[in-house]
Amino acid sequence: MKTLFYNAKFYSLDEKNNTYSAILCDNDKIIETYKDNYPNIEAQKINLNNSFVLPGFIDTHTHSFEGGLYQQGVDLENCNSIDDILTLLNQANIISDMIFAWRLDENNLKEKRFPTKQELDKVNSHTPILIRRIDGHSCIINTPAEKMILNNNKLDYALPDNGILSGSLNDIAAHTFHKNLDNNAILNCYKQAQTIALQNGHTTIHTMIGDANQSILHYPLMNEHLNDFIIDFEIYPQSFNLEQALKYKAKRIGGCILADGSFGSFTAGLSQAYQDKPINEKGKLYQTQNFWDTFIEQAHKNNLQIGVHCIGDEAIMQIVTAVNKAQLKETKDLRHQLIHCELVRDDMIPEIKKAQMYVVAQPMFDALWGQEYGFYHKVLGEKRYKKLNRYKTLTDNDIIVTGGSDWYITDLAALKGINAAVNHHNKNERLSIKDAIKLYTVNAAKLSFDENNKGMIRKNFKADFVCLDKDIFSTNSINIIKVKRTIKNAKIVFSTET
Asked: How is domain 2-55+459-495 classified at the CATH fold level?
């Protein structure tokens, strides 16, 4: 059935910056565009009420399972004290006999510390509690959670008495909780993610499934149910298990397989020590160069796109070096991903370009922690914090940068990411509005080799649109813009209008 969308300004985002007043679709495809008046057409006609329309947003890095799960739990973002946290935990929903909480930033608490295991036990001494730090690289557990983790895992060592877990223990704790959900609960987490994605104008999201070690967890389950969802999920077996990825005919591998940790946990791998730390405190490289050389060579050989979490400059160079070695043996356009890729020295840029790698960035990281005298400045110092999240420099050097939220870490909301990229803490790294939008449209489509059917509004492309209430190219404040409608495959799937 043909559908005509009209009474709007459609931004194509194509090379000529075309704009249209109406779009004709047939089933899920755009079949005609109209700059001015449109002819009398036999079609369903949908009035978009003076909306400003962009291609549907694509988020290229989420943890949608965790985001959908934690959305049902306790959000600690606005807590100012330990008492605030304990009050919310007392009111928490119990999900499959567990309590989940997220977005804890101890730096925002008056006590400047995590709650203790004993404090959590006073809230609930029978139900396992898991609290994830805002960066996802540390967590806090209570005594019942400790018992559950020990019962479900063969560990050669004791857990810390204070209940604070980081590094591999953080991953073990989180995945122990996640594995205790049944299939219906798992799929419901993705439905929750879909709801939030559509409300914020997303029609495609990339998401990681696995334990970042050897298990791909419920990847087969999700792979079987992809057609049950409205949005397009691009799924990643988040694992080092090449055999399993190939078995399920995955297009890619990784996502948040870790080359290092985070700045917040002082585990991002650096070439120089953290500010005001001993000279040998440079974070942590989770694997050797030889490990990455071997793993990436094998994935590359099997035509798997590789995505690796790397935040510090030393970790980034490990991955770039390994990819360049693989490319030297056999050059392929696989668009391997540097995920986060935050601290980039000048000398690294030619190497990233030579490796033909894409940078999967999270602009909201800069908005949250990039201000002068903010967290980045504090832990890295004046010189290095200006070398963080170098979107403009990378773009000017013809390196493709895409936009992700790392949701549940930051909101699944492309408009917030666009606003952050336009208002970067370093004026030299700010993107134009169009280039910032391209992070979540044109560039994002290229990451999944969909540049010929997604990311722009043009003939023969998917009829995926986001309708905004204000013109993003002329407003003085992007953060006041609202999503009015989300259209997927020429169908309205979210609307604030009756």
From this structure: Urease, subunit C; domain 1 (2.30.40)
| 182-227 pLDDT, tens digit each | 999 999 999 999 999 999 999 999 999 999 999 999 999 999 999 9
Q: Which of 52, 45, 43, 42 is nearest to 21 (CA)?
A: 52
What CATH number was assigned to the domain covering residues 65-178? 3.10.310.70
Residue 156 has a pLDDT of 85
Q: Which two tokens stand for residue 194?
A: 């879909």
Contacts for 444 with CB less than 8 Å, ≥ 6 apart = 57, 58, 59, 60, 204, 402, 403, 455
Indicate if the pLDDT at residue 498 is higher than 80: no
> pLDDT tens for residues 60-70?
999 999 999 99
Residues 318, 285: contact at Cβ < 8 Å?
yes
Total Cβ atoms within 10 A of residue 192? 18
For residue 491, name the pLDDT band (cuts at 50, 70, 90): very high
In our burial notation (b when 16+ CB lie closer than 10 A, e otherwise), range 7-41 reads: ebebbbbeeeeebbbbbbbeeeebebbbeeebeee
Mean pLDDT to the nearest integer, 52-67: 97
Distances (CA, A) of 301 to 279, 280, 291, 306: 39, 36, 15, 11
> Average of pLDDT values for 370-376?
92
Fold of 251-447: TIM Barrel (3.20.20)
Instruction: Give the C-alpha separation, 394 to 90, whole Å.
Output: 46
pLDDT at 117 over 80: yes
C-alpha separations of 31 from 1, 11, 27, 236, 253 in Å? 12, 16, 9, 32, 35
Cβ atoms of 423 and 430 within 8 Å: the answer is yes
DSSP structure string for 152-210: HS--SSPPPTT-EEEHHHHHHHHHHHHTTS-HHHHHHHHHHHHHHHHHTTEEEEEEEES
pLDDT given at position 497: 87
What's at 457, amino acid-wise? Answer: I
CB atoms closer than 10 angstroms to residue 384: 20
Tell me which residue of 488, 400, 421, 458 sits closest to 13, measured CA to CA: 458
Q: What are the respective helix, strand and coil percentages of the chain, to the nearest 5?
A: 35, 25, 40
Taking the CB of residue 142, how many other CB atoms lie within 10 A of it? 28
Strands 202-209 and 57-62: parallel
Contact 11, 54 (CB under 8 A): yes
Domain boundaries, the chain: 2-55+459-495, 65-178, 251-447
Per the prediction, the chain carries an average pLDDT of: 96
